[in-house]
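Quick one: structure for this chain?
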Amino acid sequence: MFDKLNILTRIIEKIKRFPVTFESMREWIKYENIEISDRTLYRYLKEAEELRMNDGRIITIEGDFNKKTWKFEYDNSVNELKENDIVSFLLLKGFLPNAIAKHRQQHIDKIEEVLFKAQSKSKFEYHLETLRKSIAAHAFGEYDYTGQHIEYIGGFVWAMQHSRKVRLNISGDNETFIGVPMQLLLHKGAVYLMSLDDTSGNKLRTVNLKDVNQFEILTIPFDIRKYEQQYNLELNKRFGVEDNIDENEYDIVLQFPSKSGTIVCNHFWHVSQETIRLPDGKWEMRLSCGINNELINWLIELNETVEILQPKILLDKTLERIDKGLSHIRNQSLKGGI
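Got it. Here's what it folds into:
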């Protein structure tokens, strides 16, 4: 059993490390086997707010959906930023996808204003002005999301923070499912809402933000620790984010000529990738994952610079896709389209 002083001390230590909500604290006391009621927990949080401490104080913030967050506000916590610190912020700001940045410009400006006021001795404004246009993200291939899409991002983040399941309606098939929100993933210029489908045995669902027709945060809580391992396992089975053609994982072996292999094999493609330089100068890449359209399309893009050594099913699927493309072009030619 923990006495009141011990529990209160541990609560304060936790808040000092990271802001907390009542829901996250409730999960934490269960995990720590601290046997107190919700009412007692709330009273302890209120008492922690009223305590005077040498290094700062606990404050509360009213967030979206009237949810309260407790955080520790340190005295003299702002240290002078160095040049690399400032450039790191500008890199984060500059490389943010344009489709998202343009809808959040006022929030970015607010952060810059706070940093400018707090860091007047660090030449923050000098670096900001000199590098404002020198660091940028190219919008090539990015989807142009709407303000509604950006609101969905905010809701999805809130659901992850507060461990609440979501209901998603996907355009096209007009499909609706209840999901456990796991991650927001930026992939090839598009934002994906990564969820485990609660209505089909926690199957991994990768939903492109542009395909979300309706979004709703439910009152159903979940414990993220019960889902993290399965999520990582399912995601690592995929080359990229698309669904696999079957449930199998394949030992994939690819070979590249010396010049193109030096380029391809020095890029990140999958967590399992292993590359070796062969005695004849060629490169060999090994992957352990499923087969999906994203992998097949990637191999087609590499064209004659890649040789598929195994498995045979990957070679067959790639040739099948190429044959379909050539057949389509021939049909266009016969119809006078080319």
